[in-house]
Amino acid sequence: MKRIKLTGSSVALLLLLVVAGCAEPGVSHHDSLMDFGSIQTVAVLPFANLARDEAAAERVRDTFSTMLLATESIYVLPAGEVARGIARAGMADMSRPSTEDVKKFCGITKADAVITGVVREYGEVRSGQTTANAIAMSLQMLDSQTGSVVWAADTARGGITMTDRLFGGGGKPMDEVTRDAVNDLLDKLFE
């Protein structure tokens, strides 16, 4: 019987391949009946915050709105216009609006769609002596005519990598991790 001798680099490569194969891509849904080309203006409502950092949802919403606007594919209503529309529509729960709330809000603001979201994790995670920044979030787009979900996606970025565990390090800065997560969601939106 032959014995296989593995070097340290071979073991590291094997572990890296196994870990990479275990990573799950985020989930994404597109309504096949929706004409996404007809969406010219969106309103990004305040996100729900399940993270420990009280300002996480507002930071992520600001980053998402800015990066969506930067695509030059869709006009994003300014945050002040969104706040005014929420007040005029009398929306009680901005992170989970009812169908009627969406229709009323879009009638006031002239938005073609509304984006809502939930920030589930935001900030530093720890494993033993190693720490890194991580984010996990979900977004959905609601149609102005029907109030139904026409797109939904989630993502998780950052966290402690195998390199961090082996060689130390603190991972990426939080703003970079957030941009990575938003880029992933934008890729899913425009796929």
Topology of this structure?
Blueprint: H1 8-22, E1 28-30, E2 41-44, E3 48-49, H2 56-70, E4 75-76, H3 79-89, H4 99-109, E5 113-127, E6 130-143, E7 149-158, H5 162-167, H6 174-189
Parallel strand pairs: 2-4, 2-5, 3-5
Antiparallel strand pairs: 1-7, 5-6, 6-7
Helix pairs in contact: 2-6, 3-4
Based on the model shown, name its key terms.
alpha/beta; Rossmann fold; 191 residues
Brief characterization of the structure:
This protein is α/β, with parallel strands linked by helices.
Detailed description of the structure:
The protein is of the alpha/beta class and 191 residues long. The protein has one domain: Rossmann fold (3-Layer(aba) Sandwich), CATH 3.40.50.10610. Helix content is 39%, strand content 26%. Strand 5 and strand 6 form a beta hairpin. Helix 2 packs across helix 6 and helix 3 packs across helix 4. About 9% of the residues have low confidence.
Helix content: 25-40%
The total number of structural domains is 1
The SSE string, one letter per element, is HEEEHEHHEEEHH
Q: Look at the helices and sheets and give the structural class.
A: alpha/beta
Radius of gyration: 20 Å
CATH fold field value: Rossmann fold
Briefly, what CATH class?
A: Alpha Beta
Query: What general outline do the C-alpha atoms trace?
Result: elongated
Tally of helical segments: 6
Q: How many strand segments? A: 7
Strand content: 25-35%
CATH architecture: 3-Layer(aba) Sandwich
Unreliable residue stretches: 8-24
- Give the overall average pLDDT: 86
At the fourth CATH level, what is the homologous superfamily? ABC-type transport auxiliary lipoprotein component
Alpha-carbon distance between the two ends? 51 Å
**What's the story with the biggest beta sheet?**
7 strands, mixed
